[in-house]
Structures are given as structure tokens and as C-alpha cells.
Amino acid sequence: MTTSLVDESRAGGGAELPPIPDGAVMLTVNIQRFNPETDDAPHMESYRVPAQPGDRLLNVLHYIKWYIDGSLVFRRSCAHGVCGSDAMRINGRNRLACKILVKDLLGSNNKAEVTVEPIKGLPLLKDLIVNMEPFFDAYRAVKPFLIAHGNEPSKERIQSQTDRARFDDTTKCILCAACTTSCPVYWAEDAYVGPAAIVNAHRFIFDSRDDAADDRLEILSDSEGVWRCRTTFNCTDVCPRGIQVTKAIQEVKRALMFRRV
Amino acid sequence: MTNPTASSPVGSLPPDLSGAVASTSDASSRGIEAPRAPRRRVRTGSNFEMYSWLFMRLSGIVLVVLVLGHLLIMNVLDGGVHRINWGFVAGRWASPFWQIWDLAMLWLAELHGANGLRVIINDYSRRPGTRFWLQVLLAVSVVLTVGLGSFVIFTFDPSMGS
Ligand code: HEM
Ligand code: SF4
Ligand code: FES
């Protein structure tokens, strides 16, 4: 169904449409909609939105929510790629709506159409919102916090730059779940801890100040742990922070294989 | 604010130096900042999935040689598939070298393929019951195939046909 831009009857809150800026293209946005109270299954709906090439997709979603259909729901908070709440499947790839620009979504033939679906593999709640609890359960399972034995130091725990560099990449994770929900192993078997949990375990396993590498490696050597990874690189492709996710997973495998970190 | 560490000798140092003194490893006491903490040994639990993962890679490497060699000999070299008959097979298996080659290929390919299927079954079966019975079926097929294949390679008798 195509909802016209000027269809006042569906306007969320009846807000007055802002003027269309110069250089805007009419973007057709296909969004997977699902209302658990009325729908048996998700369906696609289309919206036409005037968008500038420099707009983020998040602006486009806001336009739809604010001016066309106020019932559309999606998560977002920071709008600057920091909080990790707006990972969604954009043209089939997991992206943050707040980081991807409209100009990057226009095809080579400048086809002004984009498809937005929720991330795959987590229970769908409504529209673009999925239940993130299974994802965070896997995250909690790897004990993502510093565990140090012995006496509390009275000062900062000192670490050399070389030691700090070992896990620098994996400190950048914002827990958006883009990686885990792009992994075909996770789609097939959601007991798999998934790339994000491994990334966050890596963050502490390779930290010289941490004493619980054994515990975390033990958890990850389980049958639902790192050995399920089939090196498809989907996770690395989608990570909005550019983390070398597959590399981190392989480093954990290596630590398990050679029994040292 | 009163600083409890102010009376210690370290407390009077500028903050960037106090760290070097505070971490009294061998290297830092000689005035060298350790570039990297020593590698820590780790203990790990059950390693079955790790050995399975390693086996897939190691058997894969060996299979490249065995399978490509096998394909080349059987299908390409010296007239290829057209020269294969009872005598050709009998001639090859008369040599322990080809017996071992074929035996290794049989075992490795079967265990490699079966282990791959085991992983796929683990991925896709939804119910523990389905998983269990598919794994049993797989195990039975491995025993039958490896058993029958090994039996033939060891007991092949070229005079059987005549
Ligand atoms: C010729 C040389 C071969 C090489 C180098 C090779 C290598 C590999 C490797 C490295 C994997 C693990 C993939 C992963 O876990 O990420 C794998 C999986 C697999 N292999 Fe092989 N293999 C070879 C031959 C074979 C043969 C002859 C068979 C069949 C009998 C076979 C059947 C499988 C199956 C079923 C899997 C599981 C696929 C999956 O995990 O999704 N392979 N192979
Ligand atoms: S590793 Fe990257 S893709 Fe995965 S949760 Fe962290 S930030 Fe998101
Ligand atoms: S809204 Fe915070 S990461 Fe996109």
C-alpha cells in the first residue's frame, strides 16, 4: 500500500508538513510493519518521503512517524551512532539508521527506494522493534566486566600501551546486535552466544589487568561457544564501529587452542 | 582533601612516574617498562568442539592431496576413466601404497563429511529428539560405510571374479 505524502487522514498528530527543501528526492520507503495486537504476520508498507541525499535514514523514519503515520515504532536514542539502539535491516544489510545516509542507499541507477526491516533472529515485538533480551543474556554470560583477584590496588591499574592495544578494537562495541543478528549460525541456532558476546569477552580476556580469562574461555569453549563460528565474515561486514569481529573471534579460538592469552 | 597515599614515597612523584614505580615487575625495577605483560597460561574445560574444529581443517588439508590425486589418477591421466576395469582396480590394490591411500581417503572423507553433517544437524534441528535421532542415523551410516569400505580394501581378492 502506498500512503501519499499528503494523506492528512493518516498524519500522526496532524502535524503540518515541513517545506520540501531544494535538492530533495522522493524516496520510496518500504517498511516491515507488525502490530501484535491486530496482525497475524508482518507485512510491508510503503511511504513516499522527500529526502535530501545528506539525510540519515533515521531522519526519513522520523519524517514518516511525525508526518505520515505516528503508529510506526522503532528504537533510537542518541541519533549519532553511539547508543546502539537503532540497528535494523536496511536494504537487506544490518545498519544503524542514524549512520547511513540517503545518498548511500540510492542505487547506482539512482533508484530512490529503500527497504527497512527489523534485525533477524530475535523475537519480533512490533514494527522494527525486537526483543533484545536473548542478545543481552548471551552478553551477560561472558562476564563482561573486570575481574581481578588479590588485593585492591590503592592506585589506578597501570597497563602498557602494547597491552592496551591488544583489545583496543573490541572496546568499541556499542552492543547494537548488528553482528549477532547477521550471523547465519545464530539464525539457525539461537543458543549460539554470537559474535557480540565473543567480542565483549575478547575485550576482557586479552586485558592484562583481568584475571578471569579462564572462566570466559571455559564458557566460550562450550558447544554453543566460539567453535560454532564458520567464519562467514557477516559480522565484520556489518559492524557499525568497524570492529574486526571475525578476527576477534579467531583470536579467542587461538587462545583456546594454545591455552594462553 | 586529604590524600592517604600522600605520605608514601610514591605519593610525591608526578602521576606519570608513580605508575612505573608502583608496578614492581622485574623489568620496571631495572628501569625498563615491560612492553607487554607475560603471556598468561589458561586452563580450559571440555575441548571436544575444538578438536572437531581442528580436525575439519587438518583432514581438509590432507584431503586436498588425497582427493585431487585420486581424481587425477582415476579420471584424467593415461586414458582416464576409460581404462578403469576390474584389472585396473586389482592392480592398484595389489600395492600397499594405494591401499593405504584409499583407506586414508575413505576414513578422512567419511569422518570429515560426517562431522560436517553433525555440525549442520546441530544447527538446524529444532527439537532434542530430532537432533538425537538424526545423529544416531548419521553415526550408523558412518560405521556402515567405513566398515564396508575398509573390509573391501583389506580383503579384496583379484581372483574373486574368475
Ligand atoms: C578436498 C578438500 C577439502 C577441504 C580442504 C575441506 C575443508 C573443510 C573445512 C575447513 C570445513 C570447515 C568449515 C567451517 O567449519 O567453517 C569443512 C566443512 C565441511 N566439509 Fe569439507 N573439505 C574438503 C573435502 C570434503 C569432502 C570430500 C566432503 C564430503 C565427504 C566434505 C564435507 C564437508 C561438510 C559436510 C562440511 C560441513 C559444512 C558446514 O560446516 O556447513 N568436505 N570442509
Ligand atoms: S561488535 Fe559491532 S556489530 Fe556487534 S554489537 Fe558490537 S558494535 Fe554492534
Ligand atoms: S540512535 Fe544511537 S546508535 Fe543510532
What does this structure look like?
The complex is a heterodimer of chains A (261) and B (162). With 261 residues, chain A is α/β, with parallel strands linked by helices. Chain A has helices spanning 57-68, 102-105, 133-141, 161-166, 184-188, 194-205, 213-220, 234-238, 245-258; strands at residues 2-3, 25-33, 43-51, 87-90, 93-96, 113-117, 124-126, 129-130. Helix content of chain A is 29%, strand content 15%. In chain A, a hairpin with a 2-residue loop joins β4 and β5. The model of chain A is unreliable at 6-11 (pLDDT under 50). Chain B is an all-alpha fold and 162 residues long. Chain B starts with 14 loop residues before the first helix and ends in a 7-residue tail after the last helix. Chain B contains six helices and no strands. The A-B interface holds A 153-156, 158-160, 162-163, 185, 188-189, 208, 213-214, 217-218, 221-223, 225, 227-228, 253, 255-257, 259-261 and B 4-5, 18-20, 22-23, 33-37, 39-50, 52-54, 119, 122-124. FE2/S2 (inorganic) cluster (FES) is lined by residues 76-79, 81-86, 96, 98 of chain A.
Shape of chain A: elongated
Number of domains of chain B: 2
Low-confidence stretches of chain B: 1-28
Q: Could you give the count of β-strands of chain B?
A: 0
- Ligands and ions found: protoporphyrin IX containing FE, iron/sulfur cluster, FE2/S2 (inorganic) cluster
Classified by CATH, the class of the largest domain in chain A is: Alpha Beta
CATH architecture label name of the largest domain in chain A: Roll
Tally of DSSP helical segments of chain B = 6
Please state the average pLDDT score of chain B. 79
Could you describe the largest sheet of chain B, including whether it forms a barrel? none
- SSE arrangement of chain B, N to C: HHHHHH
Oligomerization status of the protein chains: heterodimer
- Give the termini separation of chain A: 55 Å
The CATH homologous superfamily of the largest domain in chain B is named Fumarate reductase/succinate dehydrogenase, transmembrane subunit
Shape of chain B: extended
Which sheet architecture does the biggest sheet of chain A show? 6 strands, mixed
Say what the CATH topology of the largest domain in chain A is: Ubiquitin-like (UB roll)
Q: Could you tell me the radius of gyration of chain B in angstroms?
A: 31 Å
Structural class of chain B: mainly alpha
Order of helices and strands of chain A: EEEHEEHEEEHHHHHHH
Strand % of chain A is: 5-15%
GO molecular function, one term (chain B): metal ion binding
Protein name (chain B): Succinate dehydrogenase hydrophobic membrane anchor subunit
Keywords (chain B): Heme, Iron, Membrane, Metal-binding, Transmembrane, Transmembrane helix
Transmembrane segments (chain B): 50-73, 93-111, 132-156
